[in-house]
Each structure stands twice: as structure tokens, then as C-alpha cells.
Amino acid sequence: MLAAVGAATALAAGAAAPATAATPAHGGERYVALGDSYTSAPGVPTQSGGDCARSSVNYPSLTAKALHQKSFKDVSCSGAKTDDMWRAQGANAPQLNALGKKTRLVTLGIGGNDIGFGEIIGTCAQLSVSDPAGAPCRKKYTAADGGDLLNKRIADAAPKVARVLKAVHQRAPHARVVLVGYPSIMPDSGVGCFPDVPIAAGDTPYLRDTEKKLNAMLKQQARKAHVRYADTYRATVGHDVCRPQADRWIEGAQPARPAAPFHPNADGERAMAKPVITQARGR
């Protein structure tokens, strides 16, 4: 199990070290998808994009199909942080380079790696072994003054997301922009399913609440930037890592269907696409 969690951590951190940013390309497809691994969908067939691990059925591809977008470019990349909008990830050019004045739709899924999604999951999984009934991860991320370190990370990520949204507006001034939240990874209620998913009982609600706070921050930044927000959490509740295989849209530490650990499978990406498509259509 922990080996699988380690693989998830590596994906979240990015498989390729950042390279020097390439000369900006002339971008401007009508629809451009930006984002991290929850956008690219590593492990979900059919894969392309090298280390960026993009799926042919990720939510951007499904959105492009639903909207009949023939001019479409997906530059999402596993491990992406907000900084990777301006810098290359291995052979992947800075994601913002894909935008242009002809762009009419931009979807963006970012922020999870800025707060350390992979590190958090890996740490919580390792600590759960010694205290499966407790909340060792919450204790780990509690500061000496009693404050929550993950709350601080979310607060620190807010201006970074705002900066990305401002840059999107500058490079694609005529585009409708949809900021995409994260799906329901942990159960929306209860104490989880240790040891099938190696997260301690008390840490399941802690991680759930942390993700909800991250999504709340993203929604707030969307509102401040006058862009649309796609709520993929609500669209995936009841299909989390603890559900039986037939009902599971987010895979756990040992995926039963093609996907990265703690990431959406094909059904999860399909579910995420629905609110994205709704917001892209302006409804």
C-alpha cells in the first residue's frame, strides 16, 4: 500500500524536473486546458504527453467533445504547481504559452500541489500504521501555537492562484475562464476504511475538511477574478476511495482500475466533466 502511495506522491511532485522556460510559442486554440494531474488523469487510458500523463478521456477532452471544439489544446501536466504556468516541466512548455487572443475558453485545475497533496497523503499513510484509530496526521500538521499548518498552506496558495487567473486574462482576454475544483477524494462522512485505504480514522475527516477548505479558497479566488467555478466535489460525493470498486470514481492506494493512486479513474473524469461543461456553456 505504501509503495502505491509513494507512486502517488511522485506523480503529484512531478516526474520531470523543471527545465528552463522555452521561447513562448504562438498559442491560441479556441479551447485550452491548463492544470495538474487531476486534470491530466495519469494512468487512465489512453495516455499521451510523456511525463505529463494526459488521458484521452480526461475532463478537458470530454469537455472539448461535448462543446464540439475542434480547436483544442490540453497542456495539463502531472505535478504542476502554479509556478509551472510560467516555467517548463521537462519537455512541457510553460502552460500559459498555449493561450492567445483567439482563445475563447480556458479551464484551469491547480492548487493541490501548491499545498503539497502528494506529501500530505504520503505522510498521513505512513503515520496511520502506528495509530490507525487516532489522528496522527492532524497532530503532525498542528503548529506549536495550535494553528493548522495546512490551513496556512491554503492561505499562502490563494495569491498564487489569483496571479495565474490574472495572467490567463492578460493572455486570453476574450476567453471564458473556468476554475475547476477537486473531486471528493475521502468519504464525505465517517472515518474511512483503514487498512484498505491507509488513512487513520481521525485523519479521514481532517483530510476531508482540508480539501473542502482548498476548494472554498479556489471558489473565492474565482469569484474575485470574475471567472466561473466548477464544483467537482459535489459531483463526485459518494464515489470516493472507500467505495466498492463498481461505485468508486477516485481510486485508493492500490487502484483497482486504471488511474494513479488517490486520483480519478475514467468514471471520475467523466463526472468532473459535467460541472465543467455546464460552466463552460455559461449556465
TrEMBL record:
Domain SGNH hydrolase-type esterase span(s) in chain numbering: 33-271
Disulfide pairings: 52-77, 124-137, 193-242
Keywords: Disulfide bond, Hydrolase, Signal
Stretches of the chain forming a coiled coil according to its record: none
MF terms in GO: triacylglycerol lipase activity
Active site positions: 37, 263
GO BP field: triglyceride catabolic process
Gene3D superfamilies: SGNH hydrolase
Domain of life: Bacteria
PANTHER family: LIPASE 2 (PTHR37981), SGNH HYDROLASE-TYPE ESTERASE DOMAIN-CONTAINING PROTEIN (PTHR37981:SF1)
Protein name: SGNH/GDSL hydrolase family protein
